[in-house]
Amino acid sequence: MDGQSNSECCSSSNLRIIVQKNPSESQLSQLGIKSWPKWGCSPGKYQLKFDAEETCYLLRGKVKVYPKNTTETSVEFGAGDLVIIPKGLSCTWDVFVAVDKHYKFDSSSS
């Protein structure tokens, strides 16, 4: 062992949060967003870890996410954005405006 366990420690360095601004109504209905469960939170800071890939659509809110152990410093999104959060991401959510969102976990990533 030479102490270089890069494959383990740094596999999360390429985890990227994907934000799609203003997806079309047809795309939202194709995804079945309105049938997804809802989740909300008030302004504040939250430590979150995603054990499965999550796709969410923000009905309202404004968030700045600070991923841990990645090359990205922060990602901002808010009401009207469709967001894909990768499996395995640990991050801090800094919620400026209370969030109300539909969400779905990718069952195939478990």
TrEMBL record:
Domain (S)-ureidoglycine aminohydrolase cupin, chain residue ranges per copy: 29-103
Gene3D superfamilies (UniProt xref): Jelly Rolls
SUPFAM superfamilies (alphabetical): RmlC-like cupins
Domain of life the protein comes from: Eukaryota
PANTHER family: (S)-UREIDOGLYCINE AMINOHYDROLASE CUPIN DOMAIN-CONTAINING PROTEIN, OS04G0445200 PROTEIN
Protein name in UniProt: (S)-ureidoglycine aminohydrolase cupin domain-containing protein
